[in-house]
Specification:
The strands form five sheets. Strands 4-5-6-7 form a four-stranded antiparallel beta sheet, with no helix packed on it. A four-stranded antiparallel beta sheet has the order 8-9-10-11, with no helix packed on it. The protein is flat and about 65 Å long. Helix content is 0%, strand content 47%. The protein has 184 residues and is mostly beta strands.
């Protein structure tokens, strides 16, 4: 079962009568999606932001609470688990890799990746912009607000540039709102 009863969405093990046996994931991070169950290893396969609030990574967890990361490349991962729970189709991208698709055999001690697609770089022949990520504190002095800044490849801090600010309103936000975009 998934629950946010400890303040973060985590997985709990119950017996067939509905009695809670134990919490199998815990920490200051969120289980974002349960992909399924690996019958052979008796593990739950899931996506979480365990390393960083903005990183969506793939994991397995045993009923004893032993967590194993299933991929090694930073990026945004979206995956589908095979019906047997033995393989993942991992689709991911990064600012410098537009689309990668791997098949991951998760029954290995170290998951084995077989690449199906590594899309051509659409920036080939062009200068890459500078991608800068970070965080600033909200007005409460506690909450981290994350940002990504994209600067021209030949950025000069002594010059002024036109700026577009896009504010993501969170999961309930359903559409892009022009009032949230300003230029300077």
């Amino acid at each position: 079962m998934q629950s946010q009863k400890d303040g973060f969405n985590h997985l709990y093990l119950f017996d067939a009568d509905g009695k809670e046996l134990k919490q199998i994931t815990k920490g200051e991070w969120v289980v974002m999606e349960v992909l399924g169950f690996n019958k052979k290893q008796k593990t739950v396969i899931f996506k979480a932001n365990k390393e960083h609030p903005l990183h969506h990574r793939l994991y397995s967890v045993s009923m004893k609470g032993e967590i194993k990361q299933l991929e090694t490349v930073d990026g945004v991962h979206n995956a589908e688990l095979s019906p047997s729970g033995n393989f993942l189709i991992d689709r991911f991208s990064t600012p410098t890799r537009p689309r990668v698709i791997d098949v991951v055999d998760i029954n290995q001690k170290t998951p084995r990746h077989t690449n199906l697609l590594d899309a051509e770089d659409p920036w080939a022949g062009y200068q890459y912009p500078i991608f800068e990520c970070g965080s600033i504190k909200a007005a409460d002095g506690v909450t981290d607000l994350y940002y990504r800044m994209v600067k021209p490849a030949d950025f000069n801090p002594d010059k002024k540039y036109p700026t577009v600010i896009y504010v993501y309103g969170g999961p309930p936000s359903t559409s892009w709102d022009k009032s949230r975009c300003r230029t300077k």
